[in-house]
Specification:
The chain is mostly helical. The chain has helices at 19-32, 60-70, 77-87, 95-105, and strands at 74-76, 109-112, 130-133. It folds into two domains: 1-55, no CATH class; 60-133.
Length: 134
Amino acid sequence: MLDEGNRPVYDLFFGTNHLEGLKKMKRAMWTVDPGGGYRFSDRRADQPTLFDAKVPPDTSRVRSELIQTFAGKTVPYSAVENWVLTHTALHDGHIKRLTLRPLEEAGLIECLPPPWKPKRRKGTYPRGCSLRFA
């Protein structure tokens, strides 16, 4: 946190043993700082920002790390979600649209739907699905 002079006032630390708590904290952080800079300054809190805060984060590095981590493996979606939440700055809302869809479009992953829901639209990842990494 920075003061009106843009000087550090304090740091915020968050700790939990629960994945759900981590999801909620990351979503809160991205709400305050949609650009992902992990900073908040009240210097301009009451003024509009110069840059569009709606620009999605660049997930290219995370996609590369996912490919390296899970190369040649088939893993449950939940394992990929847990990895992204615990190893990156992204929250769970960034995973499907910004991370997995580009990988699937590039042919680097394949989504294997669960047996109880064999049909799926491309770019969707139903509960219980697995991901096969090239």
